[in-house]
Amino acid sequence: QEHLVESGGGLVQSGGSLRLSCAGSGFPLNTNAVAWFRQGPGQARERVSCIGHSGTTYYADSAKGRFTISRDDAKNTVYLQMNDLKPGDAAVYYCAPGLPSCSTDAAHVGAWGQGTRVTVSS
Length: 122
Known about the structure:
Elements: E1 3-7, E2 10-13, E3 18-25, E4 33-39, E5 46-51, E6 57-59, E7 67-72, E8 77-82, E9 91-99, E10 116-121
Parallel strand pairs: 2-10
Antiparallel strand pairs: 1-3, 3-8, 4-5, 4-9, 5-6, 7-8, 9-10
């Protein structure tokens, strides 16, 4: 049975760090691209970062230099390390596995998990 768990969100002060986890069971995360999306209040869901099956990474301009995506194949988990968080990073973050490529946008993601909420206080 396939299962995905997103975790690691929480409340952090501006400038702080969080590490989000996307743990899969019943299916491998390293055979397709895995992306992190986020949706802030009143905003569209946007792609923040992605890691391809070969390990190639992608970052939105807003994430470059602050966020790092990685994958632990032994744990079947994808991480998003977020540093120097800003109030504008506050959102619900969603992991999207099984993507054909890192150019896949939110409209073409088949199913969404519950997400993990990130709150940044100024």
